[in-house]
Design a protein that fits this description.
Elements (H helix, E strand, L loop, with lengths): L14 H21 L7 H4 L1 E8 L5 H10 L5 E6 L1 E9 L9 H12 L5 E9 L1 H30 L4 H18 L2 H4 L2 H21 L3 H23 L6 H32 L5 H11 L1 H21 L2 H36 L13
Antiparallel strand pairs: 1-3, 1-4, 2-3
Length: about 350
């Protein structure tokens, strides 16, 4: 299906402007994270309770908040979902062993809403220790996804560097072993240090073994995740396990889009290298896959937009993260991953090629 016949748009010429825009958005997101004291974690990561009440009649969120304040609760969030009869209360608890919170809430509800009976449909409790471990595992999951992507991209596009793939695999297994220890899982600091050290090692491996395609994909994926998390911080949205799932989904979506473009670049490069410069080859490749990219992105965005508008409060943050990721992931394939290849060629062009494919005679 061709949405645009023989497109010839100019993309790569504007890559420096796009890079400035990306850097500005990332910096704004980092400033927001610093101002908020880090990401706003949900109870999945901090520990707490999520309680669902089903009232017989509509109830105002403001009235529910007033009742919770009278119960002596301070850190909580009240939202409707589905309809105005259903109320979801997210409550942070200083002591996970304190089981009196539900009784305190019900006492105040009985007093505040005597003519509006209710039932407790769900009461989920997460302890702070479990929340800490989930937070560490979520960050490590992103790291292992990156390591797996380096291995996959290297095998697919640069299979001649078997030693580099083997080194990356061994390093990934080593990180998995170290990160599974209780010391690491109990400390944000150790987890962050492992992630930073691993990022440095992966960067060195990509340079050492000429993993140019893997480097382009990884930079694009880091860009996508940072922008999504930064926007969530700006919107003061919580990060919970569903958002981690969304981020991993974004990684997969963006990677697929990048691979399609890289395949086209790898095919075009041997045929056009003597006639066109690399930036012209890449711009031509982007136009060749443009219709496919638009069809995939627009159809996916349509479904996510429906979830975002009509899916309800419970799934709205997940849908928002996916929606942002689709937009940013499509953009990064063109303006982040591709410019990395151009930079690589200008930096190491005398000793490396983007493709070792031969032209059939």
């Amino acid at each position: 299906m061709e949405l645009i016949n023989n497109p010839d748009f100019e993309f790569i010429t504007h890559r420096k402007i796009a890079l400035r825009i990306s850097l500005a958005v990332i910096v704004i997101g980092i400033i927001s994270l610093i101002a908020h004291g880090g990401p706003k974690y949900g109870i999945d990561f901090t520990g707490g309770a999520a309680i669902t009440f089903n009232f017989d009649k509509d109830v105002a969120a403001e009235d529910v908040r007033s009742a919770l304040n009278r119960a002596g609760l301070e850190s909580f969030e009240v939202t409707h979902f589905g309809d105005r009869n259903h109320v979801l209360i997210r409550l942070q608890l200083a002591d996970a062993s304190d089981n009196n919170y539900l009784g305190q809430i019900q006492t105040q509800f009985d007093s505040a809403f005597p003519d509006n009976p209710y039932i407790v449909e769900q009461n989920d409790l997460v302890g702070p220790k479990i929340g800490t471990e989930l937070r560490e595992k979520a960050m490590l999951a992103m790291l292992f996804a990156m390591i797996g992507i380096v291995i996959y991209i290297s095998i697919r596009f640069e299979a001649e560097s078997f030693l580099g793939v083997l080194v990356t695999l061994i390093f990934g297994l080593l990180v998995l072993t170290v990160s599974s220890s209780s010391v690491v899982l109990a400390s944000d600091l150790w987890t962050i240090l492992i992630i930073l050290l691993s990022a440095a090692v992966i960067g060195y491996i990509c340079v050492k073994f000429d993993f140019k395609y893997a480097m382009g994909a990884i930079v694009a994926l880091i860009h996508d995740v940072m922008i999504t998390v930064g926007i969530f911080s700006l919107l003061n949205k919580e990060l919970d396990l569903s958002i981690v799932a969304a981020l991993l989904t974004i990684v997969g979506y963006s990677l697929n889009d990048t691979i399609v473009l890289f395949d086209r670049i790898r095919e075009e490069y041997p045929k056009e290298r003597k006639r066109l410069s690399l930036d012209r080859i890449i711009n031509k490749s982007i136009n060749h896959v443009l219709s496919r990219t638009l069809v995939t992105s627009l159809t996916t965005m349509l479904v996510i937009l429906i979830l975002l508008l009509f899916g309800g409060e419970v799934i709205r943050s997940f849908a928002l993260a996916i929606f942002i990721g689709i937009v940013v992931g499509t953009y990064s394939s063109i303006y982040i991953a591709s410019p990395v290849l151009i930079y690589w060629h200008s930096r190491f062009g005398s000793s490396t090629e983007l493709s070792n494919r031969k032209i059939a005679v």
